[in-house]
Amino acid sequence: MDPDATASDLMALADGLNLQWLIDPSIGPTQGLEAAIDRLFV
Asked: For the chain, what is the domain count?
């Protein structure tokens, strides 16, 4: 995980994923979470 990631960064990421789910229902919570984790570990 990015050591510089803060709680607000994680909240923003979660907000972005929630918006993605609303726009594209085919992106389920699991897929969105996996994508978020992939970004955090890059």
From this structure: 1
CB of 36 within 8 A of CB of 18?
A: no
DSSP 41: T
Tell me the whole-structure pTM to 2 decimals: 0.33
Q: How far apart are CA 20 and CA 22, in angstroms?
A: 5
Residues 18-34 pLDDT 10s: 776 666 666 666 666 77
Residue 1 maps to a domain: no
CA 36 to chain centre: 4
Whether 25 maps to a domain, the answer reads yes
Residue 16's domain comprises 7-40
List the structure tokens of 6: 């803060």
